[in-house]
Design goal:
The structure is a homodimer. Chain A has 9 helices and no strands. Chain A is mainly alpha-helical. In chain A, helix 1 crosses helix 2 and helix 1 crosses helix 6. Chain A is elongated.
Chain lengths: 193, 193
DNA sequence: ATAAATAATTAGACTGTTCTGTTTAATTTA
DNA sequence: TAAATTAAACAGAACAGTCTAATTATTTAT
């Protein structure tokens, strides 16, 4: 029989709280309260707030990379239709969430990515992982003549990635799905052959 | 002769400090220290930290709207070349700044735009203003047959806006100009007729 | 197998600092 | 002289992180 609390559960609470509220707006006490863990246990598992945040990002980043890979592996549609349904799903999730969080890794990048090297490079690591998954699918789409070959698969992945996160920022203040829809329409029109 | 300190100078300090460090990571004391103003004077001019941040955003937002309008009015190139040189300039500024700040309004949107209605809607107001300026130029480009008419000028403005801010977030953690260049190449290739 | 010893985890009071914002008084300008 | 501004001490809450003790799990010795 294990102990009462475990690292993973606390990380999951951290994911939720950081994603919705940002990094500097969240105190350790809030994490403790929402996870029901006492301070001593927290500092037994994590060295500091920064260390905790890094581990939160890492867990989510890795989980999401696997999730994306599985999604595209299981997707039986053509490559570009897989991409479309992936982004359609992300947009739906964001709408259901009422645009209140966006992407944890992007939020962390914007808020502290430049000042804090530890968090910045942790975020970048996972961005790169996701971009590679996207690039794989894009490449298949190019081979199937569905996607333009004017640019490399990785360049197009960066393009999709940037556009989507830009539009997430836009929905945070407009709280309206239409901006995601516009981005979707234009982007997929443009990359399609 | 006026008093020793004035609202505008403090707002400019706030712009710089908030842009580089975010909202919740900045304390009033930092603003006081960097502007040399005592606390009493600060609270004479501003009701609260939130009120201060709102005014910082407003001043920058309005200034930037005018600056953009002037830029495009003074630009003697064709519409799409004006757009290109506008974004090229923004990219150069960001590179010179070593990717350390990005756009204040976008940073604020991502960090607090969803939790804080005051700041969120202030940010949105200025986004809308900038988008309208962009749309005006895009419309001219469409009339001159330089820019695709598959989408409305405002939709394309949203598209440019989202992509650019997405890529700013990307440069914050990569600290490399190349991601802006990729975005630029792809985007202008796509919108050009 | 059981008991003793060791290690890991839990618990929360406590520390010192920093946070936003208040207050009161002195000074400056109109 | 009256109003606006400047000045800094002060207040109360929140902050990250420390510390000691108690509890629980695991390992070692018998």
């Amino acid at each position: 029989m294990g102990y009462k609390y475990n690292r993973e559960d606390i990380l999951n609470v951290g994911y939720d709280v950081f994603r919705r509220n940002g990094y500097h707006n969240v105190g350790i006490n809030q994490i403790l309260k929402e996870s029901g863990i006492p301070k001593g246990s927290f500092y037994n598992f994590f060295e500091s707030k920064q260390d905790f945040a890094q581990q939160v990002i890492r867990q989510y980043g890795e989980t999401n990379t696997c999730w994306m890979r599985d999604f595209f592996e299981d997707c039986t549609l053509s490559p570009i239709e897989c991409l479309k349904s992936f982004y359609a799903m992300m947009m739906n999730l964001n709408e259901e969430d009422e645009y209140s969080g966006g992407c944890l890794v992007n939020n962390m990048s914007v808020e502290v990515g430049r000042q804090n090297d530890i968090i910045g490079s942790e975020a970048n690591t996972h961005f790169v992982g996701w971009l590679n998954v996207l690039a794989t699918v894009i490449e298949k789409g190019q081979e199937a003549n569905e996607i333009t070959v004017e640019f490399s698969a990785l360049e197009l992945a960066e393009y999709l990635h940037a556009g989507f996160y830009g539009v997430l920022s836009r929905t945070k203040v407009t709280r309206n799905r239409v901006y995601m829809d516009i981005w979707f329409e234009i982007t997929f029109k443009f990359i399609s052959t």
